[in-house]
C-alpha cells in the first residue's frame, strides 16, 4: 500500500527504527531537498505572479461589488485625487469601470490569474516530489509561466477596455487565449515528461488528480476555442461555454485542489490516508461525473431538454465522489484535528476541504429543478462560484504555499500573527462574501418568482441588492482584501529571505499550548 | 492501485464521454436547425420566414459593455418561472430563435430585466379604425406610476445616460462615455439627453447602434415548437 505521500510510510510512534532506516530517511531528506531546490525558480515565479493577480482580483472584485449598490462611485479617497490634480482622470477611469467590464475582468484575474497560477505552482512542486524527479530545465517552466501571465494581463486589460467575446469565463481576447495556451503547453507537456521519468512506479492519489487536471485542461480549452471560433451560429456556443465552465471548475481547479489536499493532510499529520479504495472510487466518479454536470447552467434555457436532464442526474450522482472524498479526509483527520491549532498548512487545507464539500453539496442541491427555479439567474450562482474559488481552492492553495515556500527560500515564515490574521481575514472575509451572495441570491430569486411582482415591474428585485450588497463590499471584500495584503507582504518578506531561521516551521501556536 | 496506462485511458475516457454527450450529440442535432418557413400555397412562395438575420450592428456594443452580465435574453417556460407573466415575452424562447446569432447572449444573471423581447411591438386598432404600434415588452400594471409612456430610442438614451433619473433604485451604470457634448446648431437634437443655451449632450454613434440593437430584439413570432403561452394583454388606448 502506497498510502502516504512519497511512500516513506513514516508511521508516528515508530520508536524501534533500525540504523538502516535512519540512514535511508536521511538520504531521502537530502533527495527531497535537492528536488525542492530544482523546483525553486519556477515555483516561486508561479507563486509571486499568482499573488499579484490575487491582489488585482480583490481590487476588481471590490469595485464590481460596489458598483452594484453604488453605481458610478469613485473608489478611494476623493481628496487624494483632488490633491494630486487627478480628479478628471479618476472620474474618467471610474466612469469607464462599469460592472459589465469589471466583473469579467475580476473573474478572469481570479480564475486564470490567481487560481490557475497558484495551482500550477503547487502542482509543479507536487509532481517533483511525488515522482521523485528533480526538475530539469526549469527555464522551460519559467517561460511557460511568463507566457501565461502575459495572457492574463492582455485578457484583463482588453476586457477593461471593452473587449469581450460574449462567453463567460472565456471572455479573453484571442491574443490572450493564444498566450494562455502556449504558456500552458510549455508547462503541461513538460509536466507529462516529468511523469514519464518518474522514479515512483505506482502513482500516489495526488498524481491521479494532477494527471487528470493537466491532461484535461488543454482538451477543454482547445475544444472550446475551436468550437467557438467556428462559423456555426446559435445556442451551440452557449452549450460549449457551459461545458467549458464546468470543466474549468470541476476538472481543472477541482482536481488540483483535491490533489493538494490529498498530499498535505496526510503529510502534516504524518499518517496514511484513511482508505485507498475510497480514494479510488472518489477519483473515478469525480472525473466521470464532473464532466457531465455542465448543463444545469442552462436549465430552462433554449437548449435540448435531455442535456439538462443528464446534467441533473449527474449532479445528483455527484453525491458519490463528494461523500467518499469527505469521508476520506475526515477519517484521516480523526484524532488529529488538534494539530489545526498549530499548523497553518493543515488549518487552511482542512478548512478548504470543508468548503469543498459544502460547495459540492450546494451544486447537487441547486441542480434540482425545484431549487433551481429560485436560484437560477441570481447571485446564488456567484455564491457557488466563490465558495469553490475563494472558500475551497484559495484556502487549499494558501495551505500549500505556507508549506512549500519555506522549503524553497531557506527560511521560515516570519510572523505567526501575520498567519493568524491572514487565516481569519480569509475565512471570515470569504465566508461573508459567499454567504451574502447566497442569501442575496435567494432573496432575489423569491422576488423574481413572485407573480404579483408584475405589478411592481422590476423595482422590487433591484431594491433587494441595497440590503446585502454594501455588507459584502465593505465587510466581505475589505476583510478578504486586507488579509491578502498581509499575506502578500509576508510572502514578499520570504522572498527577501526575511524570516525565522530554517529548521523548525513557524507554528500558529506552540504545541502543547493549544488543544 | 492505478497503473499509469489505466489512469490515462480512464481520464481520456472521461473526457470522451463528457465531450460526446454534452457537445457532439447536441451539435449534430442543432446544426441542422433552419428558420421556420410558412408556405403560401396561392402565391407558391414563402409568405413568412422566421427568424431573420439581424441587421442592427449594435451587438458589439452590448457585448463590450457586458450588458449580458445582468440582462438575460431568454424567456423560460411558465413552469420554470413567471417570465411570460412579467411580460418578457409571449412564449418561451427556443434554439431556433438564436440560429443567426454568433454567440447568443443568453446571460446567466437577472440583475435587471430580461431583454429577449425588448423591441417587441404590436399593432393595436384604435377607436377611429386606425392602427397604432405599441411596445409590448413588460406589460406593467396600469397604475404603475413609473411606467414609461413609450420605450423608444429617446427613452433608451435617457436610461443609458443616467438610469437613476428614471428609476431611483436602478443598479444600471451610467454610460456617460457613450455620449458627447456638442454645440447646438439651430435647435437641440431630439435625442439630446440634456442641453443648455449653447451645448447639448447627444448620443455617440455607439449609443445609437446599441439602441437600435435593443429595439431589434423581438422573439415574439409564433413557432410551432413553442406555442404562445400568454396572449398579450389588449393594450389600452
Structure description:
- The complex is a heterodimer of chains A (515) and B (237).
- Among the domains of chain A are: 157 residues; 175 residues, Cytochrome C Oxidase, Chain A (Up-down Bundle).
- Helices cover 73% and strands 1% of the residues of chain A.
- In chain A, strands 1-2 form a two-stranded antiparallel ribbon.
- The longest helix of chain A has 48 residues.
- Chain B has 237 residues and is of the alpha+beta class.
- Chain B has four helices and seven strands; from the N terminus they run H-E-E-H-E-E-H-E-E-E-H.
- The interface between A and B is large, with 93 and 80 residues.
Provide the descriptors you would attach to this structure in a database record.
heterodimer, A: 515 residues, mainly alpha, Cytochrome C Oxidase, Chain A, two-stranded antiparallel sheet, 73% helix, B: 237 residues, alpha+beta, Cytochrome Bc1 Complex, Chain D, domain 2, three-stranded antiparallel beta sheet, 4 helices, 22% helix
Q: Secondary-structure blueprint of this entry?
A:
The complex is a heterodimer of chains A (515) and B (237).
Chain A: H1 19-66, H2 78-83, H3 87-96, H4 99-131, H5 138-160, H6 174-196, H7 205-229, H8 236-269, H9 276-290, H10 305-317, H11 319-333, H12 344-367, H13 369-375, H14 379-409, E1 411-412, H15 416-448, H16 459-495, E2 500-501
Antiparallel strand pairs in A: 1-2
Helix pairs in contact in A: 1-4, 1-5, 1-14, 1-16, 4-5, 4-6, 4-8, 4-14, 5-6, 6-7, 7-8, 7-9, 8-12, 8-14, 9-11, 10-12, 11-12, 12-14, 12-15, 14-15, 15-16
Chain B: H1 4-30, E1 36-40, E2 45-50, H2 59-64, E3 121-125, E4 131-135, H3 153-161, E5 179-183, E6 194-195, E7 199-203, H4 205-215
Antiparallel strand pairs in B: 1-2, 3-4, 5-7, 6-7
Amino acid at each position: 500500500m502506497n498510502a502516504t505521500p512519497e511512500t516513506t510510510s513514516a508511521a508516528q510512534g515508530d520508536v524501534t527504527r533500525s540504523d538502516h532506516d535512519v540512514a535511508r530517511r536521511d538520504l531521502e531528506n537530502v533527495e527531497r531537498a535537492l528536488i525542492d531546490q530544482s523546483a525553486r525558480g519556477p515555483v516561486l515565479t508561479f507563486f509571486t505572479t499568482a499573488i499579484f493577480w490575487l491582489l488585482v482580483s480583490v481590487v476588481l472584485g471590490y469595485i464590481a461589488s460596489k458598483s452594484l449598490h453604488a453605481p458610478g462611485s469613485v473608489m478611494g479617497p476623493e481628496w487624494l485625487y483632488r490633491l494630486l490634480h487627478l480628479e478628471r482622470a479618476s472620474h474618467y477611469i471610474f466612469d469607464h469601470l462599469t460592472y459589465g467590464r469589471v466583473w469579467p475582468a475580476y473573474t478572469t484575474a481570479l480564475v486564470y490569474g490567481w487560481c490557475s497560477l497558484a495551482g500550477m505552482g503547487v502542482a509543479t512542486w507536487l509532481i517533483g516530489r511525488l515522482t521523485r524527479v528533480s526538475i530539469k530545465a526549469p527555464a522551460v517552466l519559467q517561460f511557460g509561466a511568463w507566457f501565461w501571465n502575459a495572457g492574463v494581463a492582455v485578457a484583463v486589460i482588453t476586457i477593461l477596455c471593452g473587449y469581450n467575446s460574449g462567453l463567460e469565463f472565456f471572455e479573453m481576447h484571442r491574443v490572450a487565449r493564444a498566450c494562455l495556451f502556449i504558456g500552458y503547453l510549455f508547462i503541461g507537456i513538460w509536466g507529462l515528461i516529468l511523469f514519464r521519468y518518474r522514479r515512483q512506479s505506482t502513482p500516489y492519489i495526488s498524481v491521479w488528480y494532477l494527471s487528470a487536471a493537466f491532461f484535461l485542461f488543454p482538451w477543454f480549452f482547445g475544444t472550446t476555442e475551436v468550437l467557438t471560433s467556428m462559423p456555426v451560429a446559435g445556442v451551440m456556443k452557449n452549450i460549449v461555454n457551459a461545458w467549458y465552465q464546468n470543466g474549468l471548475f470541476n476538472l481543472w481547479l477541482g482536481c488540483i485542489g483535491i490533489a493538494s489536499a490529498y498530499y498535505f493532510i496526510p503529510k502534516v499529520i504524518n499518517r496514511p490516508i484513511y482508505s485507498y479504495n475510497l480514494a479510488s472510487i472518489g477519483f473515478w466518479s469525480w472525473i466521470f461525473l464532473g464532466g457531465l454536470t455542465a448543463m444545469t447552467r442552462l436549465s430552462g434555457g433554449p437548449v435540448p431538454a435531455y442535456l439538462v436532464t443528464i446534467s441533473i442526474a449527474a449532479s445528483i450522482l455527484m453525491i458519490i465522489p463528494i461523500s467518499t472524498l469527505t469521508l476520506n479526509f475526515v477519517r484521516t483527520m480523526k484524532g488529529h484535528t488538534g494539530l489545526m491549532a498549530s499548523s497553518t498548512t493543515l488549518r487552511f487545507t482542512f478548512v478548504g476541504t470543508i468548503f469543498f464539500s459544502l460547495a459540492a453539496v450546494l451544486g447537487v442541491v441547486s441542480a434540482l429543478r425545484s431549487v433551481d427555479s429560485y436560484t437560477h439567474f441570481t447571485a446564488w450562482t456567484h455564491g457557488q462560484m466563490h465558495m469553490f474559488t475563494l472558500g475551497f481552492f484559495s484556502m487549499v492553495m494558501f495551505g500549500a504555499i505556507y508549506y512549500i515556500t519555506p522549503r524553497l527560500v531557506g527560511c521560515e515564515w516570519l510572523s505567526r500573527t501575520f498567519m493568524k490574521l491572514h487565516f481569519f481575514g480569509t475565512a471570515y472575509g470569504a465566508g461573508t462574501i459567499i454567504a451574502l451572495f447566497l442569501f442575496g441570491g435567494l432573496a432575489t430569486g423569491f422576488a423574481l418568482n413572485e407573480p404579483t411582482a408584475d405589478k411592481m415591474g422590476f423595482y422590487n428585485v433591484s431594491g433587494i441588492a441595497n440590503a446585502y450588497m454594501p455588507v459584502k463590499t465593505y465587510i466581505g471584500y475589505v476583510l478578504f482584501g486586507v488579509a491578502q495584503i498581509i499575506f502578500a507582504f509576508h510572502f514578499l518578506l520570504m522572498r527577501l529571505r526575511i524570516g525565522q531561521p530554517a529548521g523548525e516551521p513557524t507554528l500558529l501556536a506552540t504545541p502543547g499550548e493549544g488543544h | 492501485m492505478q497503473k499509469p496506462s489505466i489512469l490515462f485511458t480512464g481520464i481520456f475516457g472521461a473526457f470522451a464521454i463528457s465531450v460526446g454527450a454534452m457537445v457532439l450529440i447536441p451539435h449534430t442535432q442543432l446544426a441542422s436547425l433552419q428558420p421556420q418557413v410558412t408556405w403560401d400555397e396561392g402565391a407558391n412562395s414563402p409568405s413568412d420566414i422566421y427568424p431573420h438575420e439581424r441587421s442592427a450592428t449594435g451587438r458589439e456594443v452590448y457585448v463590450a459593455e457586458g450588458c449580458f452580465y445582468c440582462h438575460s435574453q431568454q424567456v423560460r417556460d411558465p413552469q420554470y418561472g413567471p417570465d411570460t407573466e412579467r411580460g418578457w415575452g409571449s412564449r418561451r424562447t427556443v434554439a431556433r430563435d438564436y440560429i443567426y446569432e454568433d454567440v447568443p447572449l443568453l446571460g446567466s444573471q437577472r440583475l435587471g430585466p430580461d431583454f429577449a423581447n425588448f423591441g417587441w411591438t404590436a399593432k393595436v386598432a384604435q377607436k377611429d379604425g386606425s392602427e397604432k404600434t405599441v411596445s409590448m415588452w413588460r406589460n406593467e400594471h396600469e397604475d404603475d406610476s413609473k411606467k414609461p409612456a413609450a420605450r423608444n430610442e429617446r427613452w433608451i438614451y435617457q436610461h443609458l445616460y443616467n438610469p437613476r433619473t428614471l428609476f431611483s433604485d436602478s443598479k444600471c451604470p451610467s454610460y456617460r462615455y457613450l455620449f458627447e457634448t456638442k454645440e447646438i446648431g439651430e435647435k437641440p437634437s431630439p435625442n439630446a439627453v440634456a442641453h443648455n443655451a449653447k451645448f447639448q449632450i447627444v448620443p455617440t454613434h455607439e449609443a445609437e447602434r446599441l439602441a437600435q440593437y435593443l429595439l431589434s430584439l423581438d422573439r415574439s413570432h409564433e413557432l410551432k415548437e413553442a406555442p404562445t403561452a400568454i396572449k398579450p394583454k389588449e393594450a389600452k388606448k
